[in-house]
Design goal:
By secondary structure, this protein is an alpha+beta fold. Among the domains are: about 60 residues, MutS, DNA mismatch repair protein, domain I; about 55 residues, DNA polymerase, domain 1, CATH 1.10.150; about 120 residues, Dna Ligase, domain 1, CATH 3.30.1490. It is built from 14 helices and 12 strands. The strands form 3 sheets. Strands 5-6-1-7-8 form a 5-stranded mixed sheet. A 4-stranded antiparallel sheet has the order 9-12-10-11, with helices on one face. The chain has a 3-stranded mixed sheet with strand order 3-2-4. α11 packs across α12. The protein is globular, with a radius of gyration of 23 Å.
Length: about 400
Amino acid sequence: MGCDGGFNFPTRNLKNMIQRKIIHIDMDAFFASVEQLDNQALRGKPVIVGGDPAGRGVVAACSYEARVFGVHSAMSCARARGLCPQAEFVRPRKQRYLEVSGQILEIFRRYADLIEPLSLDEAFLDVTENKQGIPSATWTAHTIRQHIYNHTGLTASAGVSCNKFLAKVASDMDKPNGLTVITPEQALPFICKLPVRKFFGVGRVTEKRMHGLGIRRGGDLLKYSRQELIDIFGKSGNFFYDIVRGTDHRPVQPHRERKSVGCEVTLKEDVRGRKQMLQILSRLTCQVEVALAKKKLKGRTLILKVRYHDFITVTRSRTSGGLYSTSSDMLCMLPQLLSTTEAGRKKVRLLGVTIANLQVAGNEQAMPYQLRLPFSLSYQADCSGVDVC
């Protein structure tokens, strides 16, 4: 199967792809755009939403005027100020963002029943049978974007295609305030030219591994058989084999199951001592325990997140035969996970604890549960006296 003008796309795949009309809507620089909307003095200026640039704050979002200078989310605010000293720094207003996000969701509901929010500022819509009776998914996307602008004053970019993967990639092709359509006939040649980093599930590590194999674009990935990809990438190989051929049957799910519950904290100062790190983790596990209890959830996988002083971030996880639900459950395993990192040898600026592989509490009676020995008193959960921001 080639990627030039003579490629042969399976008719069966093409028929399956035509059956669905998927839109991905992505608000443009959402947090920063809301700040500019509410404060006229910020319009047209580089705006950075985040912490104190004189402290240890991190960029949560930034306007396109700031992005020109190389500023991006997750960057330290101090670094952002160095790149763009004229930027206006604004503290996040989560409640305001939630309010505007709710208004946008109400607009989506006028056009589709199948809506899958991914975050406050983006969502999938399945408009195969849209509520306004508009036959064209492209025109539906255009109408939704105009409706959002008229109602909120904010712009959105949209991608339209036959599946979620292509729609999401398309929405990023012409930002801000753009609309990109990838038809089923255009799908394979588009995917062949697509850099592998744009593929769902390909992060920095996988990208580096693919580059080492000479896989830089979809066309390179297309040369591998399903078994070869499974041998190289494990279960992800199955997904890569299908997605590079334009096959993505994932439905738009209005009620997505929560996959994890977690809490993390950026420290006021870099920490080197593991004892202090464990005290901080104790505080975090208390917060995770409360969150799990509120949602009546337990989980099988414990994930530790560590960000070093140089911003390199690592995670370590442990899946248990039993279920994690209390602070003491988590603290039994965290010292071991922490010991597998460079924490202590390298200073740490952020710590996080997450529970994944969730299930509703009370449904675990059929699962084996590993009883834990009493844990050292020095590491018992203590939700007080830990100075974190």
